[in-house]
Amino acid sequence: MELIFILSTLTGPLLLAAMGGLTSERSGIMNIALEGFMLTSACVVAVVSVATGNPVVGVLAGLAAAIVMALLHALLTQAYRIDHIISGMAINLVALGGTNFLDKRFTDLSRQGEIPQIPMLVFDVLAFGLPVLLWLYLKRTRGGLRLLAVGNDPDKARQMGVDPIRVRYAALAATGLLCGLSGAMIVTNAGRFTDGMTAGRGFIALAALILGGWKPIPTAVACLGFGALYTLQLQLQGSQLFGANLPSQFWNALPYLVTVIAMAGFLGKSRAPAGLGKE
Amino acid sequence: MGHCCALRAAGRKGVRRLTPHVRLRGIDKRFGSVVALEAVSLEVEKGTIHAIVGENGAGKTTLMKVLYGSHPPDDGTIEVGGEAVAFRDSADAIRHRIGMVSQHYSIIPELTCLQNLILGAEPAAFLDEQAIEARAQMLAAKMGFSFAWSEPAANLSPAGAQKLEILKLLWREADVMILDEPTAMLSPADAEALFESLTALADQGRTILLVTHRLPEVLRFCKRADVLRGGKNVATTEVAETSAGQLAEWIVGHAMSEPVVGSFEPGEAVLETRGLTVRGDRGDEAVRGVDVLIRSGEVVGLAGVDGNGQRELYDALVGVGEVLAGDVFMEGADIGRLNPGERIARGLRLIPEDRHTQGVIEDWSLEANAALGLHRLGDLRRGQWVHAPARRRLAERIAERFRTKHGGLHQPMRSLSGGNQQRFVAARSLEFAPRLMLAFQPTRGLDIDGTQAVYEAIRNRCREGAAALVASFDLDELLEHCDRIVVIRGGRIYEPPAPQARDRNAIGRLMVGAEAGLSA
Amino acid sequence: MSGRLITLILVSFLLVIGALMLAGVMPLDALSVLGETFRQKGAWTRTLRETTPLLIAGVAVFLGLRAGLFNIGVEGQFLLGALTAAFVGLLVSGPLGVILAVIAGSVAGALWAWPAGWIKAYRGGHEVITTIMLNNVAAFFTTWLVAGPLKAPNQESTTTAALPAMTRLPSLYSSPPFFLNVALLLAVLMVVALAIWLKRTVAGYELSATGANAIAAEVAGVNVKRMTVRAMAASGAIGGLAGACQVLAYEWRFYEGFSPGYGFDALGVALLAGATPWGLLPASVLFGLLTTSSTALAANGVPRGLNGVLLGLLIIGFAAYRYRRKRT
Q1: Which of B252, B169, B253, B195 is CA-nearest to residue B51?
Q2: Dihedral sign from CA coordinates of C174, C179, C182, C188
Q3: Interface test with C, best of B344, B385, B432 (most C CBs within 10 A)
Q4: Residue B306 pLDDT > 90, yes or no?
Q5: How far apart are CA B58 and CA B66, in angstroms?
Q6: pTM of the model
Q7: Relative to the CA of B280, which of A15, A184, B295, C32 has its CA 20 to 30 Å away?
Q8: Is B162 helix (H, G, I), strand (E, B) or coil?
């Protein structure tokens, strides 16, 4: 039982962030800023929850902040036509610096005492239900179909009367929402905000997305695999079982390493959406 | 449904018995300073297949895009079913039940057939797959089509894709269906089947506009035809009252000057291909078993309608295409396995079709562009170093040759007009003693003087012992400037028989496949 | 488009002013704090010290960008180069050790970047994704090494032993508290060398052509795939060199958390540099100044994070300005 709790706590944020990445990249916008969205949300959730004493208001504020950041990414790449990578990188910088700023500015005095929280179970249900919902959405709805079409070929989609820009803004709002939930889950579990607390999980989510071939269910499986890896690592610590003497850094690096090997084509071909990064 | 009733009402109170379903009047369309359409008028009867014929660049596709709302006209009026309309975009046109299948299909290969069918015209926010598939199946059955609905559209054959495109129009309940070169990628049998379907649709009262350059299709299946040439409507005719020869003459117009036939003795073979087969974009064979022989001294023209394998043939000769079979020899040596750089070193030069992507780097200065491709030749390098003075002299020579107008050799290439860029690129290919010049539309964007100068330079170079292959969509230009003309159609090379070697009508018929009926 | 640009810059500016005021510092006060700081020589020493790794790593990123490659992996290459240099420097002492350490650091960086180039050229995998992944692997890998096998035996913290004084890059000029290390001169020389190499050599010409228009380059006889792999490896080598110099000139050891993100800041430096390598000089000094300034402001109650926000906005503004011409 405890194991399941740990597993869900470790996997949940990855699932949420990876699904957020999925809506963005499926719409054709490359997104290395998942980490930044998550961090923004985590910080705002902490600050606002403490300020208002109401965790629901806190989480809503965090989600709003992450959505604003995600829409900024859409604005910069679509209206200003900045390279998707440059925009994502700059947003990560702004998020890392901005959250440090907000945190230092607003929480120094109220550091003592944990932030008010919503139960983790809420996040768990959302995180584990989401991949299935997203899968159904892509398969069974007009919005899902248009998202797929725009991500694959914005020009042809436009010919068929679909407005790629509108679809992309909507997709990025969803990305912000989901990454926001991910950040909220992380900060809720930790109890308080610390600098850079997402610790690269946005990039792990990106890795899972690539390993999962940009599809909801396989991506979720990859997230679960990474989550299980971390759980296993925690269990092995201090035990005498096989693998216990492997350093923790090895386990931490493993997801990234697997992704590079997969991209080299040694684990079968994973196809990116054809229109990724196209105007 | 409002426009539907309006349509019927218009039909009732029609002044004449046959109110045209679509009427375009005095359509003008300019792109910048280029006049694409000039005072074009067109009337299309309801329930017929109406042909729009003409050469590449005659304005056929532009005219159809005007009707489809994606190119709003600069002047002129459009009436559909007797009602004046002004489309802001294609969505507007779709609402007026006009649909278009462009030459490059708008099918997204990653989506399933069913998803492609309904994209942009989904019945509801939540997709009831069973209901949708039932209706799709019904539509398909009516046409005698069948699809594996949940398979990715990537698996469709060209003919299957074409059928799906037509079904997309039916799904959107289009009354006016525009098809741009629908048989360009189809086998003769598939083309035959397509026209059966189209005839059936016309009999049901739908109006079909067929853009094509294949005259047999026009003669067999169309009721009326309009001929465009140079952006103008030069002829309107009942198909029953015309002939292939007459249409071909309207399409190509009359030769402007007497062909110049140079007198010279062809020398050794400079370029020879044997059974050259090249892969196209779609994994098909875009060039099929081509044998070409070009001798020293010759300027050979490659005539053909756009998209018949010219591009892939050139890519293969330059060394960037994917050769599936066959050999390429240059001056006796097998160059099939050499990379582009090694071919350049042997004296191969290219004047590319698309200079923006293949010929120049627009952000770079003229001087830096002068060396592009030649940068490892002659005095342009000293060991591993760029020899700047030689490059500057080269750039000056190149700019001088065809009088490229520029604001200094340090200005970026993008500061030049298209015509001046073309002069620059053409002049560059004549530097460092080329042996074989491959030119693709070498005079694109040039005026008459520029055209003359470029061809003269190419011919002079050939008379000194080189050889040239010049591809153009303009037959008159080739007739005027080339020693010999071969035709490429469907990836195969055809040579006009000796007595008709310079007969523009005979060559024109080879280009459009009119010489041997539909199933050539 | 220019209206949009002005909006963007205005919004960014207001954001920074707003943030300062939120932190309880009036913008004018902030300026006077900075004025005070830069009247001291120490501040300039710190600035130039920060400038050095930014400049070398900036050269690495710039070279990649010229070849059309987004080498986000400089951070990882920097770490690998630094650790390798520390390792070699501890094995071989003296000037020879310094030279070997520099070479080893570069080789390590090149090897770490190579897979990204290869995957890009022959597998079509985006170099940004592979280098991000490799960065994370590099961070864990170096942390493990310095926490385990390479840890100085008599140290509490996770760090290697310090290099002996003779196995360091010396100061070029020193009048305490002002120091100028040889590494900075090396960095400047690299900018000069890169500028000349790109402009004057056939290889530089072909590399630039690949980055500017890969199709035209291929038609012009450039082996684009091979160029991609080589450019990535070269960029990685310079990234590794940056790390090696950081160890040999300033830090004299490798420790956990060695880089505060020089590799990422270097992306900003290279983007800000614009069209020629010469732009790297002012851009890296600007980034160095910002770091020194944020340290000074931090002492006055402005959180350090403001620096990151500023850098991010700077990059966004500049990118919007630079790419505004394309596709009109």
Answers
A1: B195
A2: negative
A3: B385
A4: no
A5: 14
A6: 0.85
A7: B295
A8: helix
When computed from its CA atoms, the radius of gyration of chain C, rounded to whole angstroms, is: 20
Instruction: Count Cβ atoms within 10 A of the Cβ of residue A141 and give its class: 0-12 exposed, 13-18 middle, 19 or more buried.
Output: middle
Measured distance CA(B330)–CA(B313) in Å, rounded: 15
Helix axes C41-66, C262-273, angle to 10 degrees: 70
Flag if A264 and C323 touch (Cβ within 8 Å): no
DSSP string, B375-433: TTSGGGEETTEE-HHHHHHHHHHHHHHTT---S-TTSBGGGS-HHHHHHHHHHHTTSS-
Nearest CA in chain B to A146: B119
Taking the Cβ of residue A153 and every Cβ of chain B, the question of whether any pair is shorter than 8 Å is answered with yes
Tell me, rounded to whole angstroms, the distance of Cα B483 from its chain centroid.
Answer: 24
Are A257 and C137 spatial neighbours (Cβ–Cβ below 8 Å)? yes
Q: Which residues of A touch B122 (CB under 8 A)?
A: 142, 145
Domain-wise residue ranges, chain A: 2-199
Provide the 3-class DSSP secondary structure of residue C291.
Answer: helix
C-alpha to C-alpha distance for A78 and A150, rounded to whole angstroms = 13
Closest partner CB to B110 (pick from A140, A142, A274) = A274
ipTM: 0.87
Q: What's the topology of domain C44-327?
A: ABC transporter involved in vitamin B12 uptake, BtuC (1.10.3470)
Sheet strands (E) in C132-291: 171-175, 178-181
Query: Beta strand pairing status for B492-494 and B484-489?
Result: antiparallel
Per-residue pLDDT tens over the stretch B66-107: 999 888 899 999 999 889 999 888 888 888 999 998 877 788
pLDDT at B375 over 90: yes
Q: Of C202, C212, C216, which has the smallest distance from its Cβ to B376's Cβ?
A: C202
Q: C317 and C12 in contact (C-beta within 8 Å)?
A: yes
- Where on the phi/psi map is residue B332: left (φ > 0), alpha (ψ -120 to 50), or beta? left
Indicate if the pLDDT at residue B15 is higher than 60: no
Joined together, the tokens standing for residue C256 give 């956990």
Task: Choose among A209, A204, A199: nearest CA to A255.
Answer: A204
Q: Read off φ and ψ for residue C98, nearest 5 degrees.
A: -60, -45
Contact C30, C20 (CB under 8 A): yes
Write out residues 112-141 of A within 8 Å (CB-CB) of B.
140-141
